[in-house]
């Protein structure tokens, strides 16, 4: 028996694409039986997994996006058929461009195949493109943030395997996309300009745990630090951004107080980030940071 069949399964009922009418069977990850062995959590809140002896490498991230194998319309499963007529027309009109653009990155793709790293990564880039044309009713901005970040992670995995192709450049582009969307998610979660019930269960950012609003605050802070040079061109601007970020991180971990809403893992990551920001401030200013 093919081990891939033991990793995932196909839905019994077909899904009909609302864009082109193609029928296909969605693929879902099986999670029991030792398929997923959790490893470390990265500073970007990505869960790493240890390959198992029986199933090998299993990548949960590659399964959540549904993709029509014909027209490449893509979205999270719950949104796939929850689409309005004007959105259908926009997405349909861009079918050729959508397929051509993704083929330029990855070559020809077959979404009738079981998911693997390449088409799983492509699924998020396609979803990102399609959510650009979706209305506020499906809360597209947080979903674009998640799609950008997960695509960046997976492109990093691909770059490790094919380091001479240039996937790291696309990864950097998607990271910066994720940063811009995550800043907007903070505003949305405060203003309610996009319906919370359409995205709160998807904030992840990974599939193993939803870190919620605290996770959004932390990731905004982490990306401010990680991409400091892209956001600030002068030392003065860098210091200002780092000071603002430091205040945000300080509120997040509450001076080290651990609670049910702020678990120790997130508090510890926030504390590490706070200390890294202090070191960067000292490096830039040449002065000891006052706590």
Topology:
Elements: H1 3-7, E1 8-10, E2 15-16, E3 23-24, E4 27-29, E5 37-41, E6 47-50, E7 65-67, E8 74-76, H2 85-93, H3 95-106, H4 117-131, H5 140-161, H6 167-191, H7 212-226, H8 228-231, H9 235-253, H10 264-285
Antiparallel strand pairs: 1-4, 2-3, 5-6, 7-8
Helix pairs in contact: 4-5, 5-6, 6-7, 7-9, 7-10, 9-10
Descriptive account of the structure:
This protein is 51% helix and 9% strand. It is mainly alpha-helical and 291 residues long. The protein has 2 domains: 3-204, no CATH class; 211-291. The strands form 4 sheets. The chain has a two-stranded antiparallel ribbon with strand order 1-4. A hairpin with a 5-residue loop joins strand 5 (37-41) and strand 6. The termini are far apart.
What's this, in brief?
The chain is 51% helix and 9% strand. With 291 residues, it is mainly alpha-helical.
Cα shape: globular
Structural class: mainly alpha
* Strand residue content: 5-15%
Number of continuous helical runs: 10
Low-confidence stretches: 1-5
Biggest sheet: strand arrangement: 1-4
Termini gap: 60 Å
Helix and strand run: HEEEEEEEEHHHHHHHHH
What portion of residues is helical? Answer: 40-55%
Largest sheet: 2 strands, antiparallel
Task: Calculate the mean pLDDT score and round it.
Answer: 91
Give the C-alpha Rg. Answer: 20 Å
The number of distinct β-strands equals: 8
Integer count of domains: 2
List keywords for this structure.
disordered N terminus, two-stranded antiparallel sheet, mainly alpha, 291 residues, 2 domains, two-stranded antiparallel ribbon, 8 strands, globular, 10 helices
